[in-house]
Amino acid sequence: MTHPLFRKEIFVETAFARRFQKMLQDAWDNRSWHLLVADPGAGKTMSIRDLQKRAGGRSVLAVVAPKNNDDEQALGDQFLAALGLPIRGHWSTRKPKLMGHLHQYGTEFLIVDDAHDLSLEHLMLLKEVTDQGRLQYDHPLGLCLVAAGRGDTIPLKETFDLPDPTWLQFRRRFDKLAPFCRIASHTSEEVRDILSTLEQEYRQLFPQLNMRQWTSSIYGWLTNPVLDPTRSGRVTMDNLMKLVTTALERSYLAGDTEVRAERFKSAAALLVLRHDTLKLIDGAGPEALPQDQNQAEPARVNGKEPEQQAVSENAVPNATSTVETVGTAQEQETSPKTANCTFSGERVPIDLKRFTNSGISLVECPDCGRMRSLSPVKGVLRFKSHTRRKQQTPLTEKRWSATGKTDWDVVGGEIRISNHEG
User: Fold this and answer.
1) Which parts of the sequence belong to the ORC1/DEAH AAA+ ATPase domain (predicted)?
2) What values do phi and psi take at 175, rounded to 5?
3) Which of 12, 40, 42, 418 has the most Cβ atoms closer than 10 angstroms to its Cβ?
4) What separation in angstroms does the CA of 356 have from each of 231, 277, 328, 352?
């Protein structure tokens, strides 16, 4: 049976947490507005929770953006629940009192986690309530919209860039110097610091635990393109914790008093090679301790673990060698299957006004050429999930395309709309 320590949520004040909380604290102190973006699994939610605990009371109010409910009431009820107020009566009578409650409880700073799920109605409510606070109570509120995103994508920016006066006013309320910020995940040196902290947390189970000696290898495994698709060279806290806890838990269940390098190597293979693998559970169900697929562990050599010696000698200074080794193995494993195109679910950067005015909803995938009919969802165009197009027959339909170009235009037939038209 596993140890309770492996099921415990551990908050580590990582370099990411310090960067992220510093932005939140500045927004709180200055009552400024920001959109903060970080990688999925970077540690945003736990950092928000820690800030709330230290703030105490209701001065900092954090909620999660409603899912599958675009009505403003869904977000309004989240704020009322966070204040500890009963949700009774009609929304039409509760809504005008919301800012009054925030003023009464001394709320100074609002945080909306998973802000990429906010609808136009949710954003309108935020503007209306904060406007009411300034006008009726002389009570300005700081606001941070915390969203998950990779690369240079700025969630919600398509909405904020709409020409309507409402969104021009909303945009104007953002901080003049840092309206949109990306909080970076961890470098190799920062991973080393986290491993040092985790060694103390798990010292009761492994008195001689020393994970820092494998920092280079761990960093290399966790910056594999499967786990770092934008090749940022940064490691998220979620992936690091999964790797560490998997290796330590397997060692504990095996009765080991030390953690060998082979455990980390095996955990990394599970994270990378099995990232999208459907595991079949049959018979008596999953085993408590999955058996390693590797051969039996050899004995110590010269008082040193042979696995540790191998990792030290072949430590990965960067992601390159690990990418080649693990990536090749993944290609061999997935090659017989029909894989989705890499552009599945990606945002299509076509101006919504041009898209609507063109009257053309058919969009060509820039990677494989498959066509899909798209429509905006929450002000964003995303290409639907699809398998790669195999038949390379000529495409003649009128469609939006970026194939062979640097921008999106309507092609096919006689129509062609330039992105540089007024």
Assistant:
1) 34-140
2) -55, 135
3) 42
4) 34, 39, 43, 6
* Kind plus residue range of the DSSP H or E element containing 75: helix 72-82
pLDDT at 82: 95
- Write the pLDDT tens digit of every residue in 185-198: 999 999 999 999 99
Q: Write the DSSP symbol of residue 368.
A: T
Q: Which of 239, 188, 187, 243 is nearest to 216 (CA)?
A: 188
Report DSSP letters for 93-117, one per residue.
Answer: HHGGGHHHHHHHTT--EEEEETGGG
Q: Indicate the SS3 state at residue 62.
A: strand
pLDDT one-digit tens code per residue, 147-165: 999 988 899 988 999 999 9
- Domains of the chain are 4-182 (3.40.50.300), 188-276+288-334 (no CATH), 338-422 (no CATH)
Find, among 124, 132, 130, 112, the residue nearest to 166 by Cα.
124
DSSP state string for 125-181: HHHHHHHHHHHHH----EEEEEEE--TT--TTHHHHT-SSHHHHHHHHTS-SS-SEE
326/170: higher pLDDT: 170
Convert the pLDDT of each residue in 27-78 to its tens digit. Answer: 999 999 999 999 999 999 999 999 999 998 899 999 999 998 999 999 999 9
Contact residues for 380 (Cβ-Cβ < 8 A; gap 6+): 158, 347
Give, in order, the Cα–Cα distances in Å from 99 to each of 80, 125, 209, 418. 10, 11, 52, 46
Higher pLDDT, 295 or 133: 133
Q: What is the pLDDT of residues 225-248, one digit of tens each?
A: 989 999 999 999 999 999 999 999
| Threshold 0.90, pTM exceeds | no
